[in-house]
Amino acid sequence: MTQSKDAAPGDDAQPVSERQNVTIFDTTMRDGEQSPGASMSLDEKLEIATVLQEMGVDVIEAGFAIASKGDFEAVTEVSKIVTDSIVCSLARSGIQDIDRAAEALKHAKRKRIHTFISTSPLHMKHKLQMSPDDVHQAVIDSVTHARNLVDDVEWSPEDGTRTEPDFLCKTVESAIKAGAGTINIPDTVGYTAPVEFSALIEMLMNRVPNIDKAVLSVHCHNDLGLAVANSLAAVKAGARQVECTINGLGERAGNASMEEIVMAIKTRNDLFPYTTNIRTENIMRASRLVSAVTGFTVQPNKAIVGANAFAHEAGIHQDGMLKHAGTYEIMTPESVGLTKSTLVMGKHSGRHAFKTKLQELGYELGENALHDAFARFKDLADKKKDVYDEDLIALVDDAVSRRNERIKLTALALRCGMGVRPEAELTLEIDGETSSTTADGDGPVDAIFRAIGALFPHEANLQLYQVGAVTQGTYAQADVSVRLEENGRTVNGAGADTDTMVASANAYISALNKLLVKREKTAPAALYAQA
Ligand code: KIV
Ligand code: ZN
User: Fold this and answer.
1) Within 10 Å of residue 84's Cβ, how many Cβ atoms?
2) Which residues, 6+ apart, have CB-to-CB distance to 297 below 8 Å?
3) Superfamily of domain 407-520
4) 25 ligand 1 Cβ < 6 A
5) Could you read off the pLDDT of 208-262 as tens digits, one per residue?
6) pTM of the model
7) Does the N terminus or the C terminus of the chain have fewer Cβ atoms within 10 A?
8) What is the pLDDT of residue 203?
9) Quick one: fold of 16-294?
């Protein structure tokens, strides 16, 4: 069946106690998707899973199978295409949850069920309304049931860092006895600090008699900005699996960011003498994909993947860099997959050069997608004198995020200027049917959004409208983000185009498309109440 409970991915031959490889468990598509607005379509999840596998991620948590039809389908389909990484589904402690996870994982070559229940006094009393004894029994029953279905079972005590130490040790011991091969300690509310968390991991290593039969894992949230520091402290104390997400996506302030953990281990290997299986040159590609799919732009000063992470503006720094890159760079841009910003091609560039350039940037497009992207590139090169790497990335990401959408913009014309009431004439294709309208507004963007609202009536509120530029200069493409909220559901849309108004319309339409997907889904977070 699946990997044996005595062996961790990438380190199969080593006894648990001597293992120096840190298993990277990615939860971008489960915890990451639980962030308000970060919904992902099935195609997008399949694309992310492919990239995660290619970058060497050991375990991919593809969803929470019982949470919704969409999650079940995502776990099922990811299970079919992923062959190297372990595919994992989250499940609460109930039999139905665990059965559903096992069913969704049916096709996976390597599969894991990750089951959890709250163990902190606060959660047990107010959320579960269960006694500690009942919770303890549920741990045994859930892990035993999961182990009857798959070989590889992970168990998490939710709100682990606020759990009574004695109760934590007792439940961890019982979970291992029942067959859990991985014990994951979540800092569910991002409350702990590095010194405290490493003490907690050391306590488990010292007090749980059968701890050597399991891999200790950590899952840190970033509410105090300590998720990465806490994860690394736990690794130093003995944890050998880290749960994390691309770009630090996740509930509230997010989860520990994978790129930061992996690059900290690689760059400060003197301090963290461990290995991971991650091919770090794939980091930028994964970051850009997750950002494009979710519409969550990466802040420019974000460690590792921010636009300024390797930029040197100050004269004194530039001077140092010219003399020796090590003066201000502790890792090379190439090591995270960043290529130098270069002039790529113009309108005379051919399809072959275009394909090669996309491969250099980390995109492997199928024939149809390549055909579409090339047509868009030609269009862009006609409008824009110089086409840079960033333009190509924006173009491909924009195409990826708008693929398979039910609502599409097919035409837009505007009348605006001084002394004129702005008016937008707009055509949409909705589920294959074309319709047009004209609307006015307080500004051209307002007119466009009203026209879209007339053709596709909805109750969503606009929460954010943001315009950025992909590169510099007046030829730059506009990069627009839109956030919409409907009945507590929030989604983000993005659009890029040389015409700011077209980019705005596309960003709004992309958000509406995501709302349509979201309407079909139950928010997994809502199910936590029953865990
Ligand atoms: O944050 C958390 O506690 C979780 C668990 C389900 C692992 O996401
Ligand atoms: Zn979490």
Assistant:
1) 14
2) 291, 466, 468, 479, 481, 494
3) Alpha-isopropylmalate synthase LeuA, regulatory domain (3.30.160.270)
4) no
5) 999 999 999 999 999 999 999 999 999 999 999 999 999 999 999 999 999 999 9
6) 0.81
7) N
8) 98
9) TIM Barrel (3.20.20)
